[in-house]
Amino acid sequence: MKDFLINGSNTSGLDPFDRGLAYGDGVFRTFKVIDGKPLHWDYHFQTLSYDCEKLGIKLPNEALLLDDIKVLFTRMSGTFIAKWIITRGSSDRGYAIPKDIKPNRILLKNKFTPLPESLYLKGVNLEFSAKKSSSLLQLGATKHLNRLENVLAKQAVASSSFDAIMFDENNHVNECTSHSILALFGKHIHMPKHNHAGVSGVSRQIVVDHAQSLGYAITESNLSKNQLLKANEIVIINSVNGALPVKQIKNKKWNSLNLAYELNQLFKKIK
Questions:
Q1: pTM for the predicted model, two decimal places
Q2: Which one of 32, 64, 75, 143 has the largest count of C-beta atoms within 10 Å of its C-beta?
Q3: At the topology level of CATH, where does 117-269 sit?
Q4: What does the pLDDT look like over 170-209, one tens digit per residue?
């Protein structure tokens, strides 16, 4: 079987008039599938629903999405990476949206290659990106298909760095190219506000929902570069890699691994 399904089939291709190709008119989410079961599925479906609602795209019903996952990952043991792409559908040229348009759903399957354990035990290096996250109120926090800023920022990351921190147009910390970023001050986990830019990922939401049970408070804040560097700990998170401690940004170094360890235990606990 091919490693994808398009509208539940692996025998048909994607219509070249699909608006996801022409305009990035769609959304996506990436998640793990372990022994055929999607990890943190309730969270991922909730975020897909939110993103589609933001863009006015009709999300296929949950049962259909789960059926596709079952088909593509049937009799699959081990861990894989899945990606849902939901586009608005196909239309003639021009930005106008036909009233009878139907969304296209694309499910991708990829191998999961775990990171070296040393990165979880010793931490990762980050750098500051010169690429800014653009601000657009209507798309704030949405994981839409227009990710060129992240692509260009990722391309510019030095080989000595694991990822790069991107700032919004007001020079506030926004996110890394492919991770959310958390800064710990005492017992307060600070995370960037995503009202205008950035992506509010599933891992971030899990932290929001369960931080109190770990003894932490959550604060959404607009941190400057200098404020970030004063944090007691910095951690980056996403649905594929979990939580990674940051050991160095420029000349600033950290030694604590506590928060990243606690978050990884939390991610394993939540199904």
A1: 0.92
A2: 143
A3: D-amino Acid Aminotransferase; Chain A, domain 2 (3.20.10)
A4: 899 999 999 999 999 999 999 988 665 567 789 999 999 9
